[in-house]
Amino acid sequence: MPVLWLVIAILALSAIGYVMGRSRALSSAGGDTRALHSLPSYYGANVGLTILAPAFGVLIVWLLVQPFFIDRSIASQLPDRAVSADTTMDLVMSDVRRVAEGLDVAVSEGAMTAQEARSIRTEFTDVRQRLGEVGVALGSNVSAEVLSAAQRYRSMSRIGNLLMAMAVLGAAIAGFGISLSRTHSEFRARNVVEAGVRLILIGAACIAILTTLGIILSLVFNTIEFFRLYPARDFFFSLTWSPSFGGGSELGIIPLLWGTLYISFIALAVAVPIGLFAAIYLSEYASPRVRSFAKPLLEILAGIPTIVYGLFALLTVGPLLVSVFGDEGVGWMQSGTAVMTAGLVMGVMLIPFVSSLSDDIINAVPQSLRDGSYALGATQSETIRQVILPAALPGIVGAILLAASRAIGETMIVVLGAGAAARLSMNPFDAMTTVTAKIVSQLTGDADFASPEVLVAFALGMTLFIITLGLNVIALAIVRKYREQYE
Amino acid sequence: MYDLPQTDSHVIHEDLKVRARDVQVYYGATHAIKDVSVDIADKTVTAFIGPSGCGKSTFLRCINRMNDTIDVARIEGDILLDGEDIYDPAVDPVQLRARVGMVFQKPNPFPKSIYDNVAYGPKIHGMAKTKSDLDDIVERALRRGAIWEEVKDRLLEPGTGLSGGQQQRLCIARAVATEPEVLLMDEPCSALDPIATAQVEELIDELRQNYSVVIVTHSMQQAARVSQKTAFFHLGNLVEYGDTGQIFTNPQDPRTESYITGRIG
Ligand SMILES: Nc1ncnc2c1ncn2[C@@H]1O[C@H](COP(=O)(O)OP(=O)(O)OP(=O)(O)O)[C@@H](O)[C@H]1O
Ligand SMILES: [Mg+2]
User: Fold this and answer.
1) How many Å apart are CA A101 and CA B123, to the nearest integer?
2) Of B66, B96, B101, which has the smallest distance from its Cβ to A371's Cβ?
3) Nearest CA to ligand 1 atom 29
4) What is the pLDDT along chain A (487 residues), one digit of tens a residue?
5) How much is the ipTM here?
6) Which terminus of chain A is more solvent-facing, meaning fewer CB atoms within 10 Å of its CB: N or C?
7) Contact B98 CB / ligand 1 (< 6 Å)
8) Minimum Cα–Cα distance from A391: chain B residue
9) How many angstroms separate the CA of residue A360 from the nearest CA in chain B?
């Protein structure tokens, strides 16, 4: 793995740079740290950073750009007849890449010499079989054009990697030289390091923001693509959800949204009162000793993976509900998977979420308000009801909205607990499904990313994203407004 | 000689309201109040003076059991209100606090409207039968708190939106609205301008007609102006207690004298 070696080389170089920069600064001051502008470690850090930053910058940019560049030039050299009527350029290019990878594997496993890999011809060798022997399965026979394109691909990649290594090492060495030559007692290494640290932090923030932006853009483009194939009116207003990959599917979001909202509603109806009361108990009544073990205990619930809750719904809560509300009991429930099952379990999942947020918010209400109320002869519950909760209410509403957006985005509990039937029904003991569960089922299996049945997943995701984004924005605005009150 | 409280001289035999005997307060290991015995008369203003940290607020909070809300606080000794031990397990601190009101050192209006701030206590204790009763109670309390003129047109605005001095007067109005028998005031004027201070002092004087008022203050002039009795605290001890005039003109204890003349900070 040449990139790994490159990274190790850069790190080693910058470690050497650190030591050299430090000692050079010290010797330029005659060993007296007081004569230096900055502490010696800053000079070292300056050299180290000046090696790291440009080298990694070049490396990252190169890694991003090279594949694009190679793809473009190979694609432009492909003869027209390589792309026959029943395929597209994309498919052919992915074949090319796959064959190139296969040749790499074959060479590295010793099944082929490098020379052989460069020169084999489809006329003389069954490439598909040769690659199959080393574990690279190809979907079809390799045409001559694809094979020669793959060979060109390999040689271009090799040259590219070589150039990259040279460029990266060059950048590192240049940084080394420049920063070391600037190191002397007058140099303001401390300020330079400060600026460098800021740049690194800005870089991290940019990566986070850009990734989010990228995700949103891919959602948006695929959603637009979907609406080109399927009318938006039907998507938003049709009351049926019945995808069929043969065509003629009805992809109405309403039954899914209904399931989502119904389950979330039940979950919140469970989580909000219990979570809130737990928070009030913990923050107002519990002694410090009880609090110190009850709070972490409650927060452990928040650390349980949702798939475990899903199992709990499937294996425990569902059968339990059936035994009461099923045919042997009241007769409302057909099977264990139902809105109620998923809603109850999701409610349990949200309890620690609501309670720990509310607990923080109730604790933020100043003690002086409690004192003021007690001093007027109010009891503890009067104080809580009439002074503390009103004061904390905006924050608690914010916490509930955040919990709601988690409930809406929850998937595993629904898949296991609520069933897969998209249904518009008022009965909470019916099986229903949600937007998230359907996104999963539309994308699993052999997905053809050109059909509306698959692309609908993006439209569903986009809708969900907008709903939860709206909820989060409102929640954060409320929480922030509340914070201002006491600051 | 200083460590022995001169218990007898602190005891008066007029209309007694609050009678404290050998009160000790500990905050964990800190001994904040040491052997304090004091008698607080009805229809009198009693001033607590003393250097910062000497335990004035702590002792004041003993009288309405506000120290119960502090986990580390521990109280020993007896405090009697109208002859009844307020630390008796049978006594409900909630009932007690309705009879012994308190105004805090820092204003702490509830995040409610000005009206609701004042109506809070009367509502809890069912003091008003009708809405107009309640309106009357609120208006009277706000007038006594010397803030009615400033807020009468904005009763429904939040109390937290008032200035610091206005908030403090709102808190005084809130405390008098429940008609307590004893009103404890912890430096009520530290955030007020001279005019509002004068108004509050007038209120204190008026309250004296019916109630017993205990006021903590750092202002000697204020203590001299409003109080009939003065107690001087020093390092958790009650050093001297007597008629205000006598404490300020003819203190018995050298510590009192140096504090009043400005030599102990
Ligand atoms: N909640 C508490 N926990 C621990 N110690 C406390 C607490 N409140 C007060 N103390 C201690 O008790 C002593 C008396 O404090 P107190 O607040 O009664 O003083 P004070 O006379 O009111 O002072 P000031 O004039 O500054 O208000 C101080 O030493 C203080 O540190
Ligand atoms: Mg105090």
Assistant:
1) 81
2) B66
3) B53
4) 578 999 999 999 999 999 999 999 888 888 888 888 888 889 999 999 999 988 998 999 999 999 889 888 888 887 777 776 667 777 788 888 888 888 888 888 877 788 888 887 777 777 777 777 777 777 677 778 888 888 888 889 989 999 999 999 999 999 999 998 988 888 888 888 899 889 889 989 999 999 999 999 999 999 999 999 889 888 999 888 888 777 778 888 999 999 999 999 999 999 999 999 999 999 999 888 898 888 888 888 888 999 999 999 999 998 898 888 888 777 787 888 889 999 999 999 999 999 988 998 898 889 999 999 999 999 999 999 999 998 888 888 888 988 999 999 888 888 888 888 888 888 888 888 899 988 888 888 766 777 888 889 999 999 999 999 998 898 888 877 766 665 4
5) 0.88
6) C
7) no
8) B111
9) 18
- To the nearest whole Å, the CA of A357 is away from the closest chain B CA by 21
Complete domains list, chain B, with CATH: 6-260 (3.40.50.300)
Residue labelled with tokens 């309250």? B207
Query: From ligand 2's centre to the CA of B57, what distance in Å?
Result: 4
Mutate to test the interface with A, among B61, B71, B97, B127 (most CBs of A within 10 A): B97
Q: Is the beta carbon of B184 within 6 A of some atom in ligand 1?
A: no
Cβ–Cβ under 8 Å, residues B101 and B178:
yes
Residues near A270 by beta carbon (within 8 Å), at least 6 away in sequence? A343, A344, A346, A347, A348, A350, A351
Q: How far apart are CA A121 and CA B172, in angstroms?
A: 98
Fold of A241-486: MetI-like fold (1.10.3720)
Helices then strands, each counted (H, E), chain B: 11, 10
Cβ B182 vs Cβ B80: under 8 Å: no
Shortest alpha-carbon distance between residue B239 and chain A (Å): 28
Pocket test for ligand 1, best of B23, B26, B30 (most atoms within 8 A of CB): B30
- DSSP letter at B263 equals -
- Cα(B160)–Cα(B163) distance, rounded to whole angstroms? 8
The CA distance from B208 to the nearest CA of chain A, in Å, is 19
Measured distance CA(A67)–CA(A96) in Å, rounded: 13
Nearest to A485 by CA among A397, A396, A402, A392: A392
Distance, CA of A132 to CA of A119 (rounded, Å): 18
Q: Provide residues of B within 8 Å CB-CB of chain A.
A: 64, 66, 69, 71, 94-99, 101-102, 104, 106, 108-112, 120-121, 124-125, 160, 171, 174-175, 178
A287, A376, A485 ranked by CB distance to B97: nearest: A376
φ/ψ of B45, rounded to 5, equals: -100, 125
Which has the closest alpha carbon to A129: A154, A106, A109, A101? A106
Which one of B62, B81, B108 makes the best mutation probe of the A interface by having the most chain A beta carbons within 10 Å?
A: B108
Residue A314 CA: distances (Å) to CA of A227, A266, A305: 36, 17, 15
- Please judge whether A373 and B69 are an interchain contact, meaning their C-beta atoms are less than 8 angstroms apart: no
- In our burial notation (b when 16+ CB lie closer than 10 A, e otherwise), range A251-276 reads bbbbbbbbbbbbbbebbbebbbebbb
Domain spans in chain A, listed from the N-terminal domain onward: 3-187, 241-486
Q: Which atom of ligand 1 is nearest to the CA of B56?
A: 21
